[in-house]
Amino acid sequence: MVDIQLTYNCNNNCISCILPEIVYNQYRVDTLTIKAEMRKNNSDIVCISGGEPTAHPEFLDLFEYAFKHNKESEIKVLTNGRTLSDFSFVKKIKEVVERYSNRFIFEVPFYGPEKNHDRITRAKNSFKQTFKGVKNLEKVGLPYKIRVIVEKKNHEKIPELAERIREELNPYKITFIAARYTGKGYKNFDKVGVKYEESVKNVEKAVDMLRDKKDLVELFHYPLCILDKEYRKFGRQGVTKQQGGITFLEKCEKCSIKKDCSGIWESYLEKFGGEEFEPF
Ligand code: SF4
């Protein structure tokens, strides 16, 4: 997978964003460089991200360029989904997607129900806009995956969010992701950091809430030894394992299920240590 960041600007201001303040709010408008990056790879997945990629003034042009020059690749867009609340914008995206035969997916974060989400994004009405955005995707038949980043401010609300997803949305996948403490997440660690032993029961409860959608559930960055046995089958290694920031402890070497385990965020171990993890 290749990750192409179109811009560092964003209309959210998430307290746990993995980007540091230093790059935040800097536009990246050098479209020639972006297009060169899009042309030079032969990757299975071209991931268009940011900041918020749709905040780039030439997003639609760059989006189509990715399809045109990567005919064999899956095109993935990581967006906070707020701009998708504009139905005319979604229709334009649909027109591009229909011109090509690539596999395609949006990945959209939900942090919690309504105000809980807005408290983390620090952007008023962001939940409402993101919710409307994914409903617009459903209207035109574009697939999306929901990403739920689990942290201190939302873990108790995750089951409530899961219920809402079960009742009202039809995503392609629902991925719960243990927060990584880099960028603003590192700076704001006191506000966002939570131990697995404190949050994991709420994540397992959320999986239960999803009942008839359980086959859509994935757990990213949940080391298998912190999950109850019946939830280990949802654990995934994810693409981040190849991209760095993940490690194992010395005691993991004797663990019989290490090859299926996601490993542990290095940033997590720096803050909380590794006492919770026990080899099988
Ligand atoms: S002991 Fe290490 S390898 Fe085994 S499940 Fe836990 S984190 Fe993964």
What does it look like?
It is a single chain. Helix 3 packs across helix 5 (126-140) and helix 6 (158-168) runs parallel beside helix 9 (196-209). The chain has 2 domains: 1-141, TIM Barrel; 143-280, no CATH class. The protein is 35% helix and 15% strand. Strand 1, helix 1 and strand 2 (45-49) form a beta-alpha-beta unit. The chain has 11 helices and 10 strands. It is of the alpha/beta class and 280 residues long. It has helices at 31-39, 59-68, 87-98, 115-121, 126-140, 158-168, 184-187, 189-192, 196-209, 240-243, 266-272, and strands at 2-5, 45-49, 74-78, 104-109, 144-150, 173-178, 217-220, 235-236, 246-247, 264-265. The strands form 2 sheets. It has an 8-stranded parallel β-sheet with strand order 1-2-3-4-5-6-7-8. The longest helix has 15 residues, at 126-140. Iron/sulfur cluster binds next to loops.
Helix content: 25-40%
Strand order of the largest sheet: 1-2-3-4-5-6-7-8
Could you tell me the CATH topology label of the largest domain: TIM Barrel
CATH class of the largest domain: Alpha Beta
Spell out which ligands are present.
iron/sulfur cluster
Roughly how many Å is the radius of gyration? Answer: 19 Å
Oligomer state of the chains in this structure: single chain
Beta fraction: 15-25%
Question: How many beta-strand runs?
Answer: 10
- Number of structural units classed as domains: 2
How many helix segments? 11
Assign the structural class, choosing from mainly alpha, mainly beta, alpha/beta, alpha+beta, or little secondary structure.
alpha/beta
CATH superfamily of the largest domain: Aldolase class I
| CATH architect. name of the largest domain | Alpha-Beta Barrel
Cα shape: globular
Q: What would the average pLDDT be, to the nearest integer? A: 92
Biggest pleated sheet: 8 strands, parallel
Q: What is the string of helix and strand elements? A: EHEHEHEHHEHEHHHEEHEEH
Terminal CA distance reads 31 Å
